[in-house]
Amino acid sequence: MEKLRAYYHHSKAELSKVIFPIKEQIRNAFISVFVVVTVISLFLALIDAIMSFSLSSLV
Hints:
Elements: H1 2-17, H2 23-58
Transmembrane segments: 29-53
Protein name: Protein translocase subunit SecE
Pfam family, one: SecE
């Protein structure tokens, strides 16, 4: 039982050291991820369209 108490105590102490992000940091990270995903998606769509057009012109 003592090991369980020590584990709980150490876990609580470690959790108090964690720095949680504020709303502004979360919003900025979301916007960054959204922009990167959008740019990569558009790039892949462009590559797909180019390859589709070139393949259809060959066939």
